[in-house]
Amino acid sequence: MAFCQNCGAKLIANARFCDTCGTPVDIASEAADSSSFANPKISSHPAIDLKKVLIPVIFGIAFIAVLIVAFTFYKPSKYDAYNKSILIYEGSDDNIIVEPYGKSNIEIEGTLIDSKLSLDGTKAIVVVSNTTKSKYDKNFEGYSLYYVSDKISLISDAVLNAQLSLSGDGVAFSKEFDSSLLVSDLCLWNKGKQVTVTDSLNLGYNYLISPDGKNVIYTVGKTDDFSTEYYDGKSVVKLGKDMVPAGLANKAKYIYYSKNSALYVMKNADGNTKQKLGEDVYFNFFFNKDMSEIIFVSDEKTYISVKGNAKKSLSSSILESFILPNSSSNNNRNVIAADTFANTLWLNTNSDIVRVNSKFDTTSVAKKVENNVYLASNGKTLIYMKNDSIYKINALKENDDAVKLVNKITSYVAANNGNTVYYINDDAEVYSQKGTGKAVKIGDDCEIVSFGRFGVFKDKTLYYVSDGELCSSKGKSGKIVTGINDEILGVVSTPNRFFVLIKDGKTISSLHSYDGAKWNVMDTDHLTAIYN
After folding, report:
1. Cα–Cα nearest to 118, from 335, 338, 291, 345
2. pTM score above 0.70
3. R_g of the chain computed on alpha carbons
């Protein structure tokens, strides 16, 4: 049974509109969204599709926010990181700009429907439309699917949606779909070789590709009478009925699925090994990168399952999100770029920071913190804000005492190495401070702009807005950055790229730089994030 993206009500078979709230049922995005790891349709709890309700400006800011996590310069001790991420956005002339890191742009004609990055950011897929026909039009022929690595190539036309493996080596996609029957072909592409896995993919439920891109799990049959199958690269293995795929490890070493709103794990596609993990599991799914560990929420508590074994209680509260260094890859699929959840840091719904230790127990690091939390590239130095003050702590050291760095501030950012913080006080003055040393005043009249934050570029330069002007500082008095005359909406730095979101009349665009000197113009009215 499929569920409404807006209110969570059950949808009748082949419904075009929700019978409860009247929201249109978007077949393409329903199938595309449900194929992500982050939000399988396994309970009656509604999943709000923010991409449909946010205005283009927020799309752009979400894009920049994702970049804070996604693009990297440093190699942390625990977390995987990368520094050559592809940037994809819509241009102003009905084209799509694909920008491999530090290389020449590639242009694709058409409208951007979807795009996804590999976990290391060096490979991507782009789904493109070159028609104004609705996906529900009987003459609709589908979208074009491109694969991007060092070069760009067309995988297929007539595509409805697609999914890229974490490694970036494989792509699963549906094509030649029948909107009246809600079925399509499911194809698997891996390093240039393509096979059709089934011609009866059920579009109402998830299909998932393994991290290495060699296997896929999917559903076939009618919406109210479906079964689940697994393709091992050579043949199809039938798994059972009414199983909604939720996660797939390489070679099906671990298969996660839901049935009747409960979450299960199975080892090696063997039904005799299944473990029931929890009831009404929703929203909070987190996998390690080989999917041998899953952290999930059930009955308002948080649990972990390791290597397909029975669940173990982690916390009596909900662990809502994990804390990554700015330099660590994330890809927003609820997959953490690390081998294990041991010694990772989390925020719970009470705004407490907790650590999952090596025995998979949780210990408190800090309580009731505010939103700004920075984990340094070493994976252990944690900087956070509480009661208008900044604190620093070794989050992996048992019983370490937090050190207060600064009092009475309104906002701050931290360098990726964790050595320096930059903050704005109540008088709108901006300061730089290394550790507990003496603060150095950088400038006055520092503005917290509408979107984004002031940011640190390559741990050396702070960019901020003062009296409407973009300014930069390397720990001393700031200087105005010349050549930017438009209204500044957002200022964000990643470890190796710096972005300024600007507005000229009704046109919103972005500037970004690799070196802090030469600026590249992203001339677009609609910046699009690579969320999935």
Report:
1. 335
2. yes
3. 23
